[in-house]
Design goal:
The complex is a heterodimer. Chain A is globular and about 60 Å long. In chain A, α3 packs antiparallel against α5. Chain A has one domain. Chain A has a four-stranded antiparallel beta sheet. By secondary structure, chain A is of the alpha+beta class. Chain A contains five helices and four strands. By secondary structure, chain B is of the alpha+beta class. Chain B has a single domain, classed as Ribosomal protein L7/L12, C-terminal domain/Adaptor protein ClpS (Ribosomal Protein L30, Chain: A, 2-Layer Sandwich), CATH 3.30.1390.10. Chain B contains four helices and three strands; from the N terminus they run αβααβαβ. The N terminus of chain B is likely disordered. The chains are: A alpha+beta, B alpha+beta.
Chain lengths: 165, 95
């Protein structure tokens, strides 16, 4: 997936048919995350009870909204335009931000399901890793698409290494 | 000559002493990508890339970064925004 054009908030990418299929397959796993991260504070304080509940509800609402957007905009192919043997993905307005959030939830969701490994490379080399390979693949692939999108949004075509923070 | 601090500053100090507010903290994790975290900081706080990268590196190297100090509601708002991007963010009372 390569950035072809950036005009204000409008981003146009070129994808091969294989990349388009991979992206669509990847997005079909959304939503993938549990709500284990949804807490306002590490402190145990009853003042946070209502806020914690609100946070969980906000995440559910966000997922519902993003799922609807995904099916309208991407899964039904509205954002893809065939151009000979390749495809153009046109993202406008809030689309890039939404796609980024979806991709990152797939990445973080895969990581949570993998048991929150500290060393992401160790997952790959682990003897019992075969069963986890699909999740590891989802995590890595979503990260690759994320980086292309983030650099395009930042106006930074150079692709730095995909280190983790 | 020592110029006395403006009265408004004293009031603010008094208020802060009574209610120090909450620190919004972003914690390190091994899964969120560095450039992604920078992007989120720019989006949520309106920071420029340099400031956003400074805080991102603080998270990465020191395990956490205090990204805001606010009253309850504003701190809660920031935690909501940051968690909507799947960053591990919490609001904590200053030690």
């Amino acid at each position: 997936m390569k950035l072809l054009e950036r005009l204000g908030e409008r981003l146009v990418f070129r994808l091969s048919t294989r990349e388009k299929q991979l992206l669509e397959r990847l997005l079909s796993f959304y939503p993938l995350q549990s709500d284990t991260l949804a807490k306002l504070s590490k402190a145990v304080d009853s003042r946070f009870d209502d806020g914690n509940q609100l946070l969980v509800e906000a995440r559910k609402e966000q997922r519902s909204e993003l799922s609807g957007w995904l099916s309208r905009r991407l899964c039904e192919g509205a954002a893809f335009v065939a151009t000979g043997t390749t495809w153009r993905l046109v993202l406008d307005g809030a689309d890039p931000e939404r796609l980024l959030q979806v991709l990152n939830e797939i990445r973080v969701g895969s990581w949570l399901k993998l048991g929150r490994p500290e060393n992401l490379d160790a997952v790959e080399s682990d003897d019992g890793a075969m069963a986890l390979a699909p999740l590891h693949g989802l995590m890595m692939l979503s990260g690759q698409f994320e980086m292309v999108l983030v650099h395009a949004m930042m106006g930074d075509a150079g692709s730095r290494a995909t280190d983790e923070a | 000559m020592v110029v006395p601090a403006p009265a408004i500053g004293e009031k603010t100090k008094e208020k802060e002493a009574q209610d120090p507010g909450f620190l919004v903290i972003v914690w390190n994790d091994p899964v969120n990508l560095m450039d992604y975290v920078t992007h989120v900081f720019m989006k949520v706080f309106g920071w420029n890339k340099t400031k956003a990268e400074t805080h991102m590196l603080e998270v990465h190297q020191q395990g956490k970064s205090v990204v805001a100090k606010e009253g309850f509601e504003k701190a809660e708002y920031y935690v909501h925004r940051l968690q909507s991007y799947h960053l591990q963010a919490t609001m904590e009372k200053p030690a």
